Amino acid sequence: MKYLLVALVLLIALQIWRSNRRKAAVPPPSAKRQLREPEDMVTCAHCGVHLPSSDALVNADQHSYCSREHQNLGPK
Ligand SMILES: [Zn+2]
Q1: pTM for the structure as a whole
Q2: Ligand 1 centroid distance, CA of 41 (Å)
């Protein structure tokens, strides 16, 4: 009866050790993170700051601006 109890404890310990090892094998979620596509950078015609083209405000004259205020002030 004593050996059965020892065997049971060893079996439970082995199960815990195996489940911990399985968790460690799973790669961290950051490794699966998708990288964003590179984006074109434009320069603000007023202050010269560089910003992604998707964030820029573009005038009819094809000048890009960082903000509405600089768009109103126009190219420097
Ligand atoms: Zn600007």
Answers
A1: 0.52
A2: 13
